[in-house]
Amino acid sequence: MKLLLTGFDPFGQETLNPSYEAIKLLPDRMGSAHIEKVLLPVSFENSGAVLKDAINACQPDAVICVGQAGGYAGLAIERIAINLRDASIPDNDGNQPQDQPVVSCGPAAYFSTLPVKDIVSALKANHIPAFISNSAGTYVCNNVMYTLLHEIHSSHLSIPGGFIHVPYTTAQASQKLPVPPSMDLEQIAKGLKTAVETTVASLKAEN
After folding, report:
1. Which of 78, 85, 110, 136 could be stapled to 100 by a disulfide with Cβ–Cβ 3.0 to 4.6 Å?
2. Looking at 65, 150, 151, 165, which residue is catalytic?
3. Which of 188, 163, 202, 145 is nearest to 17 (CA)?
4. What are its GO cellular component terms (predicted)?
5. What digits encode the pLDDT tens for the residues 99-157?
6. Is 127 a catalytic site residue?
């Protein structure tokens, strides 16, 4: 079994992005599951292509994309991606699309096909703050989530996929005023490990 995990480059004024830094802390194998880790650019135009190439190369059994949501106090398991690019700040290419679709003539939205409620329950059981989010925003994170689910749908892939937002690390938060909510990087990694294990268990139960 293979799981593809993706994180992002730093963006805005940040020098690190906890999404990929936490993924790097995860083992390359969890039980019977091999973990593929891919770094995505914070780019509306290029992130989807890198993601699709990774899916084609890896042929995963599930895909979990991860991004940073500064200001969150826990892991947000995203439920919905919408067909909209509407950026409040430029991406790392300097692009700032407004009122544009992710996929022209694509459906208005896709729902995550990860076991979102089971993941939240497992995280809370491990004393990791977590919640279901019904908005992945309109920035590159939502762009990637929508692209992922559209690719799964349009290519008729029988794999679950979805997105998780993670908070600032404590190191990031310590440099900001007022100090925002944060989480230790190791705790974020523990949460992502739990999400992977829950997804693997769900796949095994289905088979």
Report:
1. 85
2. 165
3. 188
4. cytosol
5. 999 999 999 999 999 999 999 999 999 999 999 999 999 999 999 999 999 999 999 99
6. no
Which of 21, 65, 78, 150 is catalytic? The answer is 78
Q: Please give the torsion angle defined by the CA atoms of residues 9, 171, 25 and 151, in that order, rounded to the nearest 10 degrees.
A: -30
Say which of 141, 150, 151, 197 is annotated catalytic.
141
Query: In the structure encoding, which two tokens stand for residue 45, read together?
Result: 């135009």
pLDDT tens digits for range 36-58: 999 999 999 999 999 999 999 99
Residue type (1 letter), 144: V
Per DSSP, 156 falls in state T
- Residue 200 DSSP symbol: H
Burial of 74 (0-12, 13-18, 19+ CB in 10 A): buried
Helix (H, G, I), strand (E, B) or coil at 38: strand
**Active-site annotation holds for 141:** yes
User: Where is 18: in which H helix or E strand?
Assistant: helix 18-25
Q: Give which of 197, 185, 184, 167 is closest to 62, Cα–Cα.
A: 197
Q: In terms of pTM, does the model score above 0.85?
A: yes
The beta strands (E) that lie in 60-197 are given as 62-68, 75-78, 80-82, 109-111, 130-133, 161-166
